[in-house]
Structure formats: structure tokens, C-alpha cells
Amino acid sequence: MKLLVVGAGEMGTWFARTVARELADPPELALADADDAVADAAADELDGRVVTADADERFDVVCLAVPIPAVDDAAETWGGRADRAVLDVTGVMEPAVAAMAAAAPDTERVSVHPLFAADSAPGNVAVVADEPGPVTDRIRAAIAAAGNDCFETTAAEHDEAMETVQARVHAAVLAFGLAAEEVSEPFRTPASAAMFDLLDQVTGNDPRVYSDIQTAFEGADGVAGAARELADADAEAFADLYREAGRDR
Questions:
Q1: CA-CA 20 to 30 A from 170: which of 23, 59, 92, 233?
Q2: Would you list the DSSP string of 203-215?
Q3: At the top level of CATH, which class does the domain 2-153 belong to?
């Protein structure tokens, strides 16, 4: 199998490494990235090779591992070079599924979203099987064999869930970080210590990734509105909001 991974960053290398390790017959791996140095480093690490957009070459499988805003262009540029299957690990599913269908209508197509940072793998992996088949089944089995819990969903259900579990969570944690004052360790309560730990986790990555998520899923406005409701509430209204916040979900 000739596998091209477009986007040689964190999730692209996670995908390539996982598939290569778990398949009985490891693929011939190629990588492409807008940053030549990133592509070269990933190719060295994964024993692959680098290809560029002007190369006249086809592949059995193309995986798009690009930032969310780049998924349409990446699908248009690279999707048509797949003979058998196109996948993505971009993190947004409705646009990705549509872009892959437009670029590669005659291939298998599956959207995959690992719900974790690569260094926290394994974990839950959302899967939208838009046009599944034997090739994507093998790749999904390889991801599961690495210890990941793969579950099927729809593109719409996934993207709606991301508004809460990514966009609103990130906005709430970052807002706490912006509002918080420096507090010495003995004063930290269990809840505040957990928030500071989350803040360290969220702010230890590439801010562009978090910006892309906020743009795609619009989380900050909802968090800001809820915070304003709390700030403006009298005792009775606050109690109502407190109970609402603790409702079962």
C-alpha cells in the first residue's frame, strides 16, 4: 500500500506511525507539508519520503492531516491522487466529508478524529464512515489495534459535540487563565488546582490550533454569555443557574 499523509505535524505523524506499526504489511509512506523542514523531519522519523504538490504521483491512500481552515484546499490538491481511499484527521467533519466527496467521489472515504493529543494516545476516536470499504476497514482496525476506542458517529453529531467538548471547554479554561490572579500554592483549593492544571495543558500547545477550533465551532460567545448571566444574577437567579449548570447531561 502506498500511503500519503498530507500534513506532517502532530496528528499526521500519529496517524502514519499508528498505521505503519499496526498493519501486518506496513505501507510505503510518503509525506507532504507546507513546511519543508517539518516534512523532512517527519520523513526521517518515520522512515518515509517527502513529496511535493507538483509531483506527478498517485497513491493507494491519501490522509489529510492539515489545519481545519486548509481542509478544502488540501482535498482539492491531493484527494484526486488517491486510487483507493481518502481519509482525514483534521478535527472537523462536515466540511471534511464534503470536501473529500467532491475531490474523490469514486474512492472509499472515512473521517477520523482522535479526541486527544498525540502524546496522550491511545484514547477515543470518532469515525464517520462516509464511504467505507476494505482499505479503510483495515486502517480503522489498525487504529483500534493500537488501543484506541473507535466509535461511529455522523458528521453533524460530531461537529455539534465539538462545540462543547472543545470550543467551549477551551474558551472557559482560557478565560479563567486571563481572569485569574497569581495565587500561592497553599491557597489553592481542589477545584482551582484542577483549573490551573487544565490551563497548563491547554496553553502548552500551538495557539493556532485553538484559534482554528474557536472559528470552526464558535465556543467563546456561549461561555461569555453564561459568565455574564452569572455576574449579573441576584441570589435567586444565581441559585437557578447553579442548579442548571449541574443538570445531568
A1: 233
A2: TTS-HHHHHHHHH
A3: alpha beta
- pLDDT value at position 119? 87
CA distance 227 to 109: 41
Amino acid at 217: F
Averaged pLDDT for residues 24-51: 93
CB 130 within 8 A of CB 158: no
Residue ranges of the domains in the chain?
2-153, 157-245
Assess contact for 87 and 111: CB atoms under 8 A.
yes
142 vs 249, which has greater pLDDT? 142
Helix, strand, or coil (residue 26): coil
pTM to 2 decimal places: 0.91
Q: Are strands 108-114 and 124-131 parallel, antiparallel or unpaired?
A: antiparallel
User: Phi then psi for 124, rounded to 5 degrees?
Assistant: -75, 140
Q: What is the mean pLDDT of residues 209-230?
A: 93
Burial 73-87 (b: 16+ CB within 10 A, else e): ebbebbbbbbebbbb
3-state secondary structure of 64: strand
C-alpha cell of residue 136? 479503510
